[in-house]
Amino acid sequence: MDLRISATGVSKVFNRRTIFREITFAVGTTQTMLISGRNGSGKSTLVKIIARLLTPTGGYVDFEGTTRPDEAGRLALLGMVSPYLQMYEEFSAQENLQFALAIRGLHPEVQWIHELLKRVALFPRKDDPVRTYSSGMKQRVKYAFALVHRPPILILDEPMANLDAEGVAIVRGIMEEHRRKGILVVATNDLTDIERPDVAVNLNG
Questions:
Q1: Phi-psi region of 203 (alpha: psi -120 to 50; beta: other; left: phi over 0)
Q2: Which of 91, 139, 143, 176 could make an S-S bridge to 95, C-beta 3.0–4.6 Å?
């Protein structure tokens, strides 16, 4: 699928404070976009606008190349990981992934779910409630949750948050694979998180 995300003149104002102004970019399949900036520069806000969780004050974001231009179609394209997105902690990791598929009207593929949980090194704990996981394990569940519907667009806000060395290696592998076949959007103030982005948006001005 040949996709493209384009933003034209995107601005956001909160309580009369301008977070950012006139952001324009385009990123396509097999490309990576880096959103960088100091804390408070609006990285998470821009990520939420791209993911349709927030509406821009000005400008617009388009998804091109999809046969379903409606909102449900656009959301089906997206997988997202961020510190502010939470799993259902009373559910197990496996149940969270089954739920992620069910809410999209997709069949709960047990073999695929197990493959994902092995990939993020959580298969031995797949039936334990997420509330019993460490912060790093919860972060890895988010990656499986984001990938379970096989989205062509992966959006990561502070991708290495709460991860130890094993978790960082797992996530780097996921990022590298996704940048070869889809669109990868990474928001971070640590420029070592992603090397050689095709598109860079620096919110420091």
A1: alpha
A2: 91
| Domain ranges across the chain | 1-77+152-162+179-205, 86-150
Burial per residue of 21-54, b for 16 or more beta-carbon CB atoms within 10 angstroms, e otherwise: eebebebbeebbbbbbbeeebbbbbbbbbbbebe
CATH topology of domain 1-77+152-162+179-205: Rossmann fold (3.40.50)
Tens-digit pLDDT profile for residues 33-58: 999 999 989 999 999 999 999 999 99
> What phi, psi does 108 have (nearest 5°)?
-75, 90
pTM for this entry: 0.93
Identify whether the C-beta of residue 133 lies closer than 8 Å to the C-beta of residue 84: no
What digits encode the pLDDT tens for the residues 110-126? 999 999 999 999 999 99
- Residue 128 tokens read as 């334990």
| Dist. CA 63–CA 3, nearest whole Å | 7
